[in-house]
Amino acid sequence: MHDTIRKEFIKLIKEHGLEGEEVIVRATALSTEQAIGNPEDKDYPLVRGVERLIQAEFRGSRGQAFTDMYGDFTGRLSEIAEMDLQNNFRRAIFISSLNAVMNHLGLVTQTVHCKDKQPRECATELASYIEKSYGQPRVAMVGFQPRMVEALAKQFELRVSDMDRDNIGQEKFGVKIDDPRQTAENLKWCDIALVTGTTIVNDTIDQFITSKPVVFYGVTISGAAKLLGLNRFCPFGG
């Protein structure tokens, strides 16, 4: 999957004459307030400190990616495109930079996380989107996003799996949060899968490219979804 994205990224750089320029991409981990503002609800992974957003800036455009491995990075675009994607930190740098470049080129939007009240509004729109697009499907969600689970549990049969040990086994909004080992069974059970775009960073995305409908959500997968033709939901990102 990442090899395909890399080839497309390098192709974009060459097509737009960027490979010969000394372009500097700066990526840094955002604070909670920078990333999500001040939402009333405090159970988001960003607020709890489980994950951070890496933000890359390219010619005034920004691209972000969720990751559990974060830090600062400065490098040339050609260096990032050829980077060895050996861990979540490097993949987050690569993906956030891809998002920033594609946003600059006008190829994708919603590459910056929504803030304040928007995550709750996003969840409401997601429930409506699923109902309009798929009726009353059984939904397997990968990655616990509290407002989405809260909204979806009211309307659909829902199973949720998550990698955060603090969530596994807990009941959230009437739904028990499963261990990732249950994900494969949940995918067999469901009619559609709702998958966090963070899977492109933690390198688990391949298992979700199935014959069943899959909706990826969030800013992280914005560029990759465009390049790979994946269905993505992210109405409020900047």
What would you note in describing this structure?
- The chain is of the alpha/beta class.
- The chain is globular, with a radius of gyration of 17 Å.
- A seven-stranded mixed sheet has the order 7-8-6-5-9-10-11. Strands 3-2-1-4 form a four-stranded antiparallel sheet.
- Helix 7 links the parallel strand 5 and strand 6.
- The relative contact order is 0.16.
- It is built from nine helices and eleven strands.
- It has two domains: 103 residues, no CATH class; 116 residues, Rossmann fold.
Overall CATH class of the largest domain: Alpha Beta
What is the second-level CATH architecture of the largest domain?
Answer: 3-Layer(aba) Sandwich
Q: What general outline do the C-alpha atoms trace?
A: globular
From the 3D structure, determine the CATH topology of the largest domain. Answer: Rossmann fold
The amount of beta strand, in percent, is 15-25%
**Radius of gyration from CA coordinates:** 17 Å
Q: State mean pLDDT (0 to 100 scale).
A: 88
Count of separate structural domains: 2
Strand order of the largest sheet: 7-8-6-5-9-10-11
For the record, give the distance between the C-alpha atoms at the N and C termini, rounded to a whole number: 26 Å
* Series of H and E elements: HEHHEEEHHHEHEEEHEEHE
Find the count of extended strands (DSSP E, 2+ residues).
Answer: 11
